[in-house]
Input
Amino acid sequence: NKESSSSRGALIVLEGLDRCGKTSQSGRLYKYLDEQGHSVESWRFPDRNTGVGQMISSYLANKSQLDDHAIHLLFSANRWEKRSLMEEKLKSGTTLIVDRYSYSGVAFSSAKGLDIEWCKAPEIGLLAPDLVVYLDISPEKAAERGGYGDERYEQLEFQKKVAGSYLSLRDSSWKVIDATLLIEDVEKKLREVVLDCMMTCHKGKPMSQLWP
Ligand code: Z5A
Output
């Protein structure tokens, strides 16, 4: 399961409920690392630019209907279609800041009632993040941030179930940051854990695969 490597980039994943601030923080972190001279890219899942991503986008906009299992597999396929590029980038020394990953896949589908082990299965073999940061906010507080749009899943009752799913997925390696702090304070805490993780990857921490 492990591969040896040297001086590689770090795979940083941001997770959390809708409106927790992932997009804002990814942007700020990217800008900071880039200005510091690091090789860094900002990614997000779903990646709506691929063929699979367009099917997902239409589903999220309620323009198409799909069986819960089928959409789960599409979200997973969307990560698989980026896997080799992801590995290439990391090996060449580029750090990737990824807004949502397999944990979103499992949290959202299991919140609909799908079996959690079934949900985890198609993710096996994807690259394991070097760091998962959970931006912690209650569903109620998140809903207050500008309200929800028209996309599927943007409803308080469903977000409460997603929060419960995330809780059962979290392990002690995750870094949890209070997402209700001032945006600059979240940013500061995020930088600290990310720089620390980048250092361990730079020193030769091996890459591994889901689920470790
Ligand atoms: N999904 C899935 O089911 N399966 C999968 O495998 C994957 C995803 C990968 C689309 O995701 C949906 O797909 C998502 C999960 C599901 N559904 N939901 N819910 P998406 O990534 O396209 O959408 P999103 O994650 O929900 O993104 P978002 O709405 O853009 O939220 P965000 O990125 O976490 O937050 P933000 O845009 O940075 O901030 C939201 C607002 O809060 C904004 O006005 C900010 O200015 C404000 N904000 C941010 N931080 C703060 C602080 N600290 N204080 C005050 N206000 C703040």
